[in-house]
Design goal:
CATH superfamily of the largest domain: FAD/NAD(P)-binding domain
CATH topology of the largest domain: FAD/NAD(P)-binding domain
Radius of gyration: 19 Å
Strand content: 15-25%
Strand order of the largest sheet: 1-2-3
Oligomer: single chain
Structural class: alpha+beta
Largest sheet: 3 strands, antiparallel
Shape: elongated
Helix content: 10-25%
Number of domains: 2
Distance between the termini: 48 Å
Number of helices: 1
Order of helices and strands: EEEH
Number of strands: 3
Length: 106
């Protein structure tokens, strides 16, 4: 794993310096853009008592984003699914919103 220690900019991004967590060695990578990635650790600790998480901490839902807890929906990258991208998270959000409205309206 690498830790970003410096992002250098002269009018626009020109390089990123990263540090290895194994040996502490720093390396500078010349680049003009970056994609910020924060990892695969879902922030779902508050749901542990509901028994709706898989072994990796992701919320288990059906195709309508419903959990087994009455009235509780989950969407985005906290949900167990195959692809973790903004496009799928947005779609999940739309489905969860419609499902919640249907639940409220009866």
């Amino acid at each position: 794993m690498l830790l970003v220690v410096l992002m250098k900019k002269i009018k626009k991004l020109s390089s990123v310096t990263v540090k290895s967590n194994k040996d502490g060695k720093e390396t500078t990578i010349m680049c003009s853009g970056v994609f910020i990635y924060i990892g695969f650790l879902p922030a779902t600790e508050m749901l542990e008592k509901h028994n709706i998480l898989n072994d990796y901490g992701y919320v288990i839902t059906d195709e309508n984003m419903k959990t087994t807890v009455k009235g509780l929906f989950a969407c985005g990258d906290v949900r167990k699914k195959g692809l973790f991208q903004i496009a799928t998270a947005v779609g999940d959000g739309a489905i969860a919103a419609i499902s919640a409205v249907k639940k409220i309206d009866g």
